[in-house]
Design goal:
The mean pLDDT is about 90. α1 packs across α20 and α7 crosses α19. This protein is an all-alpha fold. It has 3 domains: about 150 residues, no CATH class; about 90 residues, no CATH class; about 90 residues, no CATH class. Pathway: Glycolipid biosynthesis; glycosylphosphatidylinositol-anchor biosynthesis. One of its GO terms (biological process) is GPI anchor biosynthetic process. It is a multi-pass membrane protein. This is Glycosyltransferase RgtA/B/C/D-like domain-containing protein.
């Protein structure tokens, strides 16, 4: 077991609980989401614990407890709450919130281990440690330790990439299927992993023999990745059609959750940027919505910039393919809402930061990240929307 990973995970987890505990002494709980009074406060857990199930956490809690009985919760993919529900039945003495937090935090710890192994294939150990520090200190990394699917999804995609890099394609496809049953963007492992397949299985062989582009394309049909990765999404879509009469219920329900999301049409990125510029011009800066919009815009621009630099620094293309599709897709609903959380999965972003040569620059960025992490954790745990 990697002592460095144990140390940074333990410090990160204790730090966030301490921040939540301290925050409740200075800021009243003002929930901007429903059901906190009947699902969280009544749990009899300390508020610094149950507050990590705020916002979407209550919906995952509902699904884990009683499946999709609440209308429109179908926007949340099933595998994470299914895992929480199963483990809760195995350990009925534990509160469901506690089980969800254990699943999330254990998944994040294992993700750090897998990410370390994945990075070792390309980078020095000293660089890897900095990359992991940027990951755990990212301003919204508290979502990895919350009653959210982020950490489980991160674990699945990292396992899938690592197994692909080590040429264990069936297992890679299996974890890819688990990812696409956890989040919609899990399906974007398909093009990313097929690129790995082409590089590792087909390109090596074609270097010995002359092979046409047509046969190169056909090679993807020999890969188990092609058939396994979409399975999670396909099974969920069939479930939605059978039970609710709509294959795309998870997409069509998006507008119900606010932020002026579109569930029936695609909004292009320039239109979203113009919308945010208008918000920053027209909304009074003393209003909370102004600062939320600014946070969403700045983190989105930061992530896009880091991915562009990732191409310049020659970060592995499969990671970039997955990350670009993952961060661009949510913007098609017409908003950057939740982008501070969605960009957490843009793995090249941390690699680019970790490879910065100037030591002072890295320290300054880490200091800014940790300061924002502290501030945003307090706001989130006290019921304020931060993405």
């Amino acid at each position: 077991m990697n002592i460095f990973i144990i140390s940074i995970f333990f410090f990160w987890r204790v730090f966030l609980f301490f921040v939540a505990w301290t925050g409740e002494k200075f800021l009243p709980f003002s929930p901007r989401f429903p059901y906190s009074d009947i699902l969280l406060i009544t749990s009899h857990l300390p508020s610094w614990l149950w507050s990590f199930a705020n916002f979407d956490g209550v919906h995952y809690l509902t699904i884990a407890k009683s499946s999709y009985s609440a209308q429109f919760t179908q926007v949340f993919f099933p595998l994470y709450p299914i895992l929480v529900g199963i483990i809760s039945k195995l350990f009925p003495i534990l509160n469901l919130i506690t089980v969800g937090l254990i699943v999330s935090n254990l998944s994040f710890f294992l993700s750090l281990e897998i990410f370390f192994k994945l990075l070792k294939l390309d980078y020095k150990k000293s660089d890897i440690k900095i990359i992991l520090l940027f990951l755990i200190s990212f301003p919204t990394s508290f979502y990895f330790g919350s009653f959210y699917s982020e950490s489980v999804f991160l674990f699945f995609i990292l396992c899938s990439f690592y197994l692909a890099r080590t040429k264990r394609w069936w297992l890679s496809g299996f974890f890819g299927a688990a990812a696409s049953a956890t989040r919609l963007v899990g399906i974007f492992l398909l093009p990313a992993l097929l690129w790995e397949w082409h590089q590792n299985e087909f390109k090596v062989k074609s270097s010995k023999y002359k092979v046409s582009n047509f046969h190169s394309l056909l090679s993807i049909f020999r890969s188990p990745i092609t058939y396994l990765v979409p399975l999670g999404l396909i099974i969920y879509m069939l479930y939605l059609q059978i039970n609710f009469g709509d294959f795309l219920y998870f997409w069509h329900s998006q507008p119900i959750f606010g932020a002026e999301r579109s569930g029936s049409s695609i909004i292009l990125l320039p239109q979203v940027i113009v919308r945010y510029i208008r918000i920053l011009i027209l909304v009074d800066y003393t209003q909370e919505i102004y600062w939320i919009a600014l946070l969403e815009l700045l983190i989105t621009v930061f992530a896009f910039t880091a991915l562009i630099i990732g191409h310049i620094r020659k970060v592995r293309l499969s990671y970039l393919i997955f990350s670009w599709l993952t961060v661009l897709t949510p913007t098609l609903t017409g908003t950057f809402s939740s982008m501070p959380r969605y960009v957490l999965l843009a793995l090249p972003m941390y690699i680019v930061l970790g490879l910065i040569k100037n030591r002072l620059s890295k320290i300054c960025i880490l200091a800014v990240f940790i300061s924002l992490l502290l501030f945003l954790t307090v706001l989130f745990t006290r019921g304020h929307w931060v993405g």
